[in-house]
Design goal:
Blueprint: H1 16-30, H2 37-48, H3 52-62, E1 71-76, E2 81-87, E3 96-97, E4 103-110, E5 112-119, H4 123-128, E6 131-142, E7 146-149, E8 154-158, E9 166-173, E10 178-186, E11 192-201
Antiparallel strand pairs: 1-2, 2-9, 3-10, 4-7, 4-9, 5-6, 5-8, 6-11, 10-11
Length: 204
């Protein structure tokens, strides 16, 4: 996997365990209020500026065997959770999901991933109906792309059409405690609809 990612040499990077410890310390220092988009963006900036190569190397080391989906928890505090995710070409995708009551920030560190965003005309009606008609937008997110993810927000990330490995950093504040998962439905009038398929909770 390392050959697929532009990384700094091992000698110039801290050990992966030290990277995780530093990320935890930075998260505690930067995220003081929680649930604040400016804090989230500030944390992403501090965690990634000049550190992308070492984050990618930590991902390859901590993710273990190449046949596993590369993902590691970088930090978990009372105010925020931070995840580093890898996207193998033509292999990895999330379910259609939201982030519950958490705001989020996402930065693509390496490569390109595809995002599909689903937007109902009326969120209140959408949740009451357990699904409903949505608008669908697809976009490619290249290295350096920074997303400010509000709530509510329903989307999917995937690497189905990509030929190179990609990685992304995800910050959730408050910490990610639940996600609603959806399935897509197609109707005779060509409208796209979503229906709730599962409701994951960290502490059921």
């Amino acid at each position: 996997m390392e050959s697929m990612i532009a990384i700094r040499s091992a000698a110039s990077c801290p050990a992966p365990a030290d990277i995780r410890m530093e990320a935890e310390e930075i998260t505690r220092r930067v995220i003081t209020k929680g649930n604040d988009p400016e804090e989230i963006q500030a944390l992403i900036h501090e965690l990634t500026t000049g550190k992308t190569g070492c984050l990618n190397r930590a991902l390859t080391v901590l993710a273990g065997k190449e046949d596993n989906r590369p993902m590691i928890s970088l930090a978990e505090t009372e105010k925020a959770s931070v995840w580093l995710l890898g996207w193998r070409p033509s292999k990895d995708a999330t379910d259609i999901h939201d982030h519950g009551e958490s705001l989020a920030g996402i930065k693509v560190l390496e490569g390109t991933v595809e995002e599909v965003v689903f937007t109902p005309p009326d969120w209140t009606r959408f949740y009451k109906m357990d699904g409903g008609e949505t608008e669908r937008m697809t976009r490619l997110l290249s290295a350096g792309t920074l997303l400010d993810v509000p709530k509510p927000y329903v989307h999917i990330f995937d690497s189905w059409k990509q030929v190179d490995f990609a990685s992304s950093l995800h910050v959730y504040s408050p910490p990610l405690a639940e996600m609603r998962l959806y399935r897509e439905e197609y109707r005779e009038d060509d409208a796209t609809g979503l229906r709730l398929s599962n409701h994951w909770k960290a502490n059921p």
